[in-house]
Each structure stands twice: as C-alpha cells, then as structure tokens.
Amino acid sequence: MPTCDPFLIVGASTRAAAFSAIRSGMQTQTADLFSDWDLKQHCLAFQIPSSEYPHGLHDLFCRIKPTTWMYTGALENYPTLIDQLASKSRLIGNPGYVLRRARDPFLVRDTLQKAAIPHLEVTTPKDAQNQEGLWLLKPFRSAGGSHIQFLDQVISPQLHNVSRNTTRSIRRPLFCQKWLSGPSVTAIYLSSLEQVQLIGVTKQLVGERSFHARSFSYCGSIGPLPLEASLSDKFLVLGNTLSRTFGLRGVWGLDCVLSNSTPYAIEINPRWSASLEVIERALNLDLFTLHVNACEQASHSVAFDQNENTHANPLLQSSSYTNNLVGTAPCVGKAILYADRDRIAPEPSAWFRLFDLKYPQMKTTTNYNTFPYAADIPNKGELIRQGQPMLTLMVAGNTVKLAEKRLQHTARMLYERTF
C-alpha cells in the first residue's frame, strides 16, 4: 500500500501491531493508552489519557490528519466511533456495520446454529438463572476477559437490576454464555473477497497466577499449535461460515474453547489480535502486509517458503511446503505480566541488564537467538498500579509445554528481583 504519510495505528495498546507494521517496512505512528518506551524508539507515539479514551481519538484525527489507519483491541466495541473516524481517514479494517453484527453473541449463536455447527448457548441473565449448568456473565463491550464472572457468584439483587433491562429489543449491557470446560485457544484467519485462510491456532493463557492475572483476564498466547487434519477442517468451517456471514476482511481472530476435539466459538475479534505476533514470529510471516492487501481487496496468498512448518492448515500449503525445522524453535510464547503490587518502573535498560532479556529484533525473519525478550516496556518513573499490565515477555521453545515453562520461569525471576 504505497503512501508517503505515516500509517496510524490506534487502540488500547498498539505496540504489537506497530512492530509488525514497522517490520513490513511501513512508516508508522500510534495512539494508545500507554505510549510505551520501546514503542517510542521506533515511531511517533501519542498517548491518550484514560479519561479521554477512546473518544479523544476524534481530536487526534483532526490534529494530525492521518491518511490511512487501523485499530487494535477493544475499539471493535465502538462501531459508531470507528465509522466517524473512517469518515475522516481511510480505514484498513472492518467498518462499523460489520462490527455491530460480528460482536453480537446472539447473532453469532444463531449463525452457527443455522449452519449446524457446535456452539455455546447464550441467553439473558434472567433466563440463565432458571437453566442448569454453569453460566458466565459477560459484558457486551468485552476486552481481554475483564469484568467476566460466573453467574452464580453475582449478588441476586444486583443481578435482578441487570435482568430487568435485558430484552431483545434494546442493546443488552450484559449477557450470559454457557461455560464449557476445556483449553482456550485463538484461531487466526485471513479473509479476502475470494477466500478465507486459517493462518494458525494459539493456546490462550487466561487468568494465570504465574503472571498475576485476574480471573478470565487474557495474559498471553503460545503457538502455533499442531493440528490434526480433522480439527483443522473444523476451524476452517467455522472461519468460512463466520467470515461469509459477517463480511469479515483482513486478519481477524476467533476465541474458542476446545472440547472433545471440537472448537466452540466464544467470540469474534474482528481486528488485529494480541496473539498475532506469536504466529508471525514463529512462522516468519509478514501478516501486516497480508492484512492491508486483504482489506484493500487486492489479490493475495500466504506464500510459505521452505522453512515453514506443519502447524499451519494443510489447505495453506504451497508446493514448496516442508516441515524441515532443523536448528529452529517451532513455538513462540508471549506472556503479559501484571503488577503484583504497586510499582515504579525503573530505567528501561534495567530490564535487559538485570534479567538477561534481549531487545526485539525489527526484522521479518525470526532469529531464535534473540529470545527471551521484553516488550511493552514502561517509561522510567511510571507508576504501575497492582493489577495493571507491567511488561510483556516473549520466549521460544521446541514445544508448547516448554515455551510455557520458560515464560513461567522468567516471570518468576522478574517478580522476585524487580524494583
């Protein structure tokens, strides 16, 4: 996508998407809640005060007048804002009318039910009280698993007040989704007008005590997961059905729970997903360019070279596809470390000097000698409140289990020795 103006990336946290854009050769600028130190080393980064987020983006757009832009996590919950900003600048991503439908859990349920695809039941809090099994009470504007709890843990009077306003004729602030035991995963897809491709599937780290994450809070990803052909086909059916129904474009994610070798969709993330950099680093893919091309309805394909591995869907294999990975690590793990107490961020170099962490390489081809590395590095003197994200770790390993152990070991060292 030729342009002489910086490409603007906005969202609650933009570092991962920005690094992908920069690795692809795109001149980039960002606007988010953190404006982390490492982000500012590579691009112009605007920080939006939490009291002005996300609607403060209006003023930013008027001030810097970006030519082209995209959004990351949580902004899919503001489709009207997305459309307003898209009227000012060219959007690379899904517009508001797609978000309104793709983020409606009742419409997603109806779509899967009509296609005879296994799905999780959803209902109103009032109706869930009268049904068997465990139910999760969730906000419609969900982000990273925040504000989710089991229905039976909610105080009855509080639930009654919620239930009175939950009718199908108005926008429901809360809904209930049936809880299903099983590992949480994210499937990453690439959708264009012509096709839907499954790029890979990652294991989700949710509510992990090792990283001091709250219950249900997203705290990392590991992958790509090796998939049996039958499971891979089920993910493809899911992706095709949802992409076709809701008109999804570009790279997007689908959170699922696995049960009996079947993926059950939890929610659609119709934008750049937090787990993308895990897939990108493990498979040496330039997903940013693929995303832009798909959104602009250009012809594209995922070209796997001879160093790609067997974690991707078989339907994506090219004639040069091979599983030869001698001397490389097939899995990448990412963990978001949350502050276990109020902390003051040290000099950024301290993270690398004291804990033997490396600085992420801004090259498309992954060098596994650069792991483990740190990202989303807070600015010196920044107050990090207990429960807030403190740092992101990235590691590599030969297996998912080994990558997870390395994340836990490095995190434990940081919590024990850090400022």
Descriptive overview:
By secondary structure, the protein is α+β, with helices and mostly antiparallel strands. 28% of the residues lie in helices and 24% in strands. It is built from 13 helices and 19 strands. It has helices at residues 15-23, 37-40, 57-64, 79-86, 96-102, 105-114, 125-128, 156-163, 229-246, 276-283, 287-295, 349-355, 400-417, and strands at residues 7-10, 28-32, 44-47, 68-71, 90-91, 122-123, 135-139, 149-150, 174-178, 184-191, 196-206, 218-223, 250-259, 262-269, 331-338, 343-344, 373-375, 383-384, 389-397. The strands form four sheets. It has an eight-stranded antiparallel β-sheet, sandwiched between helices. A five-stranded parallel β-sheet has the order 3-2-1-4-5, with helices on both faces. β10 (184-191) and β11 (196-206) form a beta hairpin. It is globular, with a radius of gyration of 21 Å. The N and C termini lie far apart (43 Å). 44% of the residues are buried. Residues 163-172 and 298-329 have low confidence and may be disordered.
Short account of what is shown:
With 419 residues, the protein is of the alpha+beta class.
